[in-house]
Specification:
Strand order of the largest sheet: 1-2-3-4-5-6-7-8
Largest sheet: 8 strands, parallel, barrel
Structural class: alpha/beta
Number of helices: 10
Shape: globular
Helix content: 10-25%
Radius of gyration: 22 Å
Distance between the termini: 48 Å
Length: 494
Amino acid sequence: MASVLATAPALAVQPNSPYGVVAFIPSPNRFDAMREANIVWGRYDFSWRSIESAGKGSYNWAVQDYAVAQANARGLKIYASLGYTPAWASASGNANSPPANLQDWYDYVYACVSRYKGSIKHWEIWNEPNLSQFWAGTRAQYIELLKVGADAAHAADPDCMVLGPELSSAGPASTWMTEVLTQAGNKIDIISFHQYDGRDTPSGRLSAMDAMHNTIVNLGYGNKPIWITESGFRSDATGMTEQKQGEYLTAMLAGVASRPWVKKFFWYQIWEGGAGTEKWGLLREDESRKPSWQAYHDYTAAHPAPEMISVNLSTTDITDGLRRVEVADGHTTADTRAGRRCRRNSDPAGGDYYIYFDVNDSFAFEGGRPVVIIDVDYYDLGTGTLTLQYDSIDGGAYKVAGSVTLGNKDTWKQATFYIDDAYFGNRQNNGADFRVSAGEGVSFYLDVVQVSAARVIPEPGLLPMLLPAAMIAASGRQARQRTGGWSCGSAEVR
C-alpha cells in the first residue's frame, strides 16, 4: 500500500521538542492553539473500530487523513494511538475485547502504518490495557496483541517506533509493566505510561513517576526511552481552579525537565469537551483558552527545545555542525538499509572498528559545554554491543559513555548517550571528539547522529542524582534507545 500525505510541513518547528498534548482528533482551532503554544506533539486517535468498522478490509481514512493534513500544514508531530476492536472482529462484539483473530489486528496495523509512514513514525499499541474499561482481555492476551502489533508496524515501516504498554497509574501498573517488559520488552522501542496518582500534587506525581522509572530500570530496560503520554489535573476538581491548574501544569513541566530520562510529556488534554464533561482541557468547551493554555505557552517560550547539531550519513554526508572523520581504523562505506541511506564500517575484519565524529568547536570545545546528549540512529542487525567513546574532562580522550546490545531485529533504532563531562578538545584520532563501535569484526550501520545541548547546565554531580544508580555505568552514562527528547534538567527544579 502506498504511503500518503508525506508532504513536508509548511511551518518548521523544533524537531526534538519534548512538548505534547492528548489531542484525539482536533478541530482547526485546537490545532492552531497547539501551534501557537509550541506544543509540537499531539496524541491522536487512529481507532481500529472507527477506521475499519464496516468490515474486513473496508477502510474509512477520512478523519485520519484530515488530522494528518492539518498537522503537516502546521509542522506538528503525530503520535498515533492504535486500538479498540470493531464489532465484526471482536470476540464479544465490544470495543475493549480482544480480537477473535490476531491476524485481523496485524492486517489493520500494517495497513495503517503503511498508509501514513511518510508522516507518522510513532505508534501506540492500545490505551491503558490495565484498566478493564479499555481492555477486557487478560494480561497475557494483551502481551500477544502487543507482539503482533509491533511486528506489523515494523514490517510496514522499519523506520517507525512502537510505544507501549501505555499503562495507567490508576490500575495495577507495576505488575503489568513487569510482565510486559519481561515477555515483550524487545518489541517496544519506547516505553510509555500515564501518571495520575501521587496525592494529586505535582510533587506527588513526579515521585510516582520516579518509582515507575526505577521499576523499569530494575527490569533491565533503562536503555529504553520513556514518554509520559498522559498526565493532567482537572480544573473542576475539589480544591482546584483554572488558575491553579495552570500552576500545576508549569510545575509538572519543570519537574519533568529535571528528569532527563523523560523524553516527552503529554498533558491530558487539549479540549475539555462538551457540557457535563470533566474539565481537563487547555481549552474550554467553546475553545477559548484557559490559564493552563497560557501557562503551557509561557513555559515553552521560556524553555525551547535544546540547541542541536547533526550529521546525516550517506554517499555524501549532510553536515550541520557535526561531521564524520575518516581515520585509519575507521573507514566507512555508503550503504542502504530498509530504504534509508547510511554508512557502515568498511572492513571490520581488517581493522575498521570505528566511525569517528568531530563536533564543531563553536558548539562545544575544551569543556565549554560539558552536558550534552548524543543520539545515534543505528540499524539493529546481527549481534554485538554498540559502544560510544568520547573525549572527556575526567576520563581521558576515549571514555566509554555507555552501550546498547544489538538484538538482530532488522530494523532501525536510536540510542541515546548522556554525558556530563564532555571535553571535546579534538583529542581523538584525526581531531575527532567521539567514536562509535560494535566491536572487533562486527559490521554496524549508522544514519543520523545528533548532539543536543542541555538547556540549563546542572550543578556538578546533579545528573547522577537524577538517574538511578543502576543506569550509571562505572565508566560513563548508560546508553538508551529513544527518539526525540528532553535535555538534562535545571538544578533549580527538583
